[in-house]
Design goal:
Elements lengths: L1 H50 L15 H16 L4 H12 L2
Helix pairs in contact: 2-3
């Protein structure tokens, strides 16, 4: 009976060790897979960020630049005085320049 008992004990220990080893291997494989998915998602997000064109620059608000607006108004007034622009064209250009 001693031999049979020793063989049974060895079988139980070997079976338990195999089960524990398989469980550890599965758990580690799951962790690696989760890390890989996270890295792929992060990489895809970075690529999407780099692939998107930068937004166009915001237009400068009308009326800023002071002397530029004044100089342009003077130029338009000169063109109107020379007869190049009609009063309606001058008014439209002035409204566009002032953002009205």
């Amino acid at each position: 009976m001693g031999l049979l008992r020793g063989m049974a004990r060895t079988a139980v220990v070997a079976g338990t060790a195999t089960a524990v080893s398989n469980r550890v291997s599965r758990r580690q494989a799951d962790r690696w897979q989760q890390q890989e998915y996270a890295q792929q998602a992060e990489y895809a997000q970075q690529q999407a960020t780099y692939a998107a064109p930068p937004p166009p620059p915001a237009p400068a608000p009308a009326g800023t630049g002071g002397s530029d607006v004044t100089a342009e108004l003077e130029r338009l007034a000169g063109l109107r005085n020379q007869g190049v622009l009609s009063d309606e064209e001058f008014a439209a250009a002035k409204a566009k320049l002032l953002g009205l």
